[in-house]
Amino acid sequence: MLRSYLRAASTIPQRSLHLSHTSIRRSIACRTCTPPRGRAYATTAIPQPGPNCSENFRTFTGQPGKPDIYSFWEKQTCTWQYVVADPVTSKALIIDPVLDFDKANGRVSTETADCMLDFIERRGLKITRIMETHAHADHLTSSQYLKTKLGGNVPVCIGKRITKVQETFAPRYHVQPTELQHTFDVYLEDNEVFKLGDLEFEVMHLPGHTPDHVAYRVDSCVFTGDSIFEPDVGSARADFPGGSAKDLYKSLRKLMGLPGDYKLFVGHDYPPEGREPNCVSTVDRHKATNKHINSTVDEPTFIKVREDRDKLLAAPRLLHPSLQVNIRGGRVPAKLVDPASK
Which GO annotations describe the biological process of this protein (predicted)? Predict the structure, then answer.
């Protein structure tokens, strides 16, 4: 299991990866996801986002008093990123942005983030917050890069339990306590409510995948991070330190208890062959068809399925660089410890 893998990693001698910010030429897929049936949103084509992006963006265009939601697909890590905007004031926030990383040569680049920045500028949006759902273990966050490019005053926000995750992983990667001071700007409380223009967001604590995991609800839309996945994929793994299949079941049941027309926007998608990446399904669809957490699945069954599945999963490809950057709040150190190399 992943917990054992991480424990073993802490005993392996260090070798460092030197990071270069040289741009990596790569194909960035910027695309929409398929909207759920029966939704109250219209899908609207908007202008080309810029030269580094291979496709047009599209948007779920909100009604007055409802959010405009823009989805960004990063295909190397199968990550969905979001820009959520108040259509009245054009104030917006970013959820779970990706920093590109080439593991083969240890280089980071910012094409995915620059693609998003180009889009934000073209749409005339004013970013007021950058939101993280948790400390990701499968991709690096571009939150600090975006903060800098947006003027340096946009707060990076995360759930308050990130400190527990930092305490767990800092010794394993030889991160000094001073490096973790003021890593994030806002530490969110459970059920905290904050405003984005005329929109109201609520913080939902959803432990299980990681202990610090939160989701963000605005109107009938919930940005679920790595808790629930699309119905034919199921749910996120629960074998990280501090993770728990039992806690994850309770978190997913919390989501399933929302009104049936609520839309759950996922943090990743791993589509089976023949299906395009998708980012959203309704609660009713999950209750009817989610392979892990539909309405017929009880807690013991879910725990067994989830734990059995986790035993078969390999460690995420970018596990070590992701955790080292993400517990630092997106700050890339001069060197990354590579415990996989002896």
Answer: glutathione metabolic process; hydrogen sulfide metabolic process
CA 327 → CA 28, 165, 169, 282, 312, distances in Å? Answer: 25, 7, 8, 32, 26
Question: What span, in angstroms and rounded, lies between the C-alpha atoms of 258 and 107?
Answer: 42
Q: What is the pTM of this model?
A: 0.88
- Count other C-beta atoms under 10 Å from residue 187's C-beta: 15
Cα separation of 25 and 105, whole Å? 13
8 Å CB contact between 82 and 74: no
134-168 residue pLDDT tens = 999 999 999 999 999 999 999 999 999 999 999 99
88 alpha carbon, distance to own chain's centre: 26
Listed by start position, the domains of the chain span 19-324
Could you tell me what percent of the chain has a pLDDT over 70? 82
Residues 268, 228 contacting (CB under 8 angstroms): no
Domain 19-324 classified CATH 3.40.50.300? no
Pairing between β-strand 221-223 and β-strand 263-265 as defined by DSSP bridges? parallel
Beta-carbon count within 10 A of 24 CB: 16
The position carrying tokens 């049941």 is 253
Across the chain, mean pLDDT equals 87
Separation of first and last alpha carbons in the chain = 21
User: CB under 8 Å to 34, separation ≥6 — which residues?
Assistant: 276, 278, 280
Q: How far apart are CA 310 and CA 240, in angstroms?
A: 10
Nearest one of 145, 123, 143 to 131, comparing CA atoms: 143
pLDDT of residue 67: 96
Per-residue pLDDT reduced to its tens digit, 26-54: 333 444 555 554 444 443 444 444 444 54
**pLDDT class of 214 with cuts at 50, 70, 90:** very high
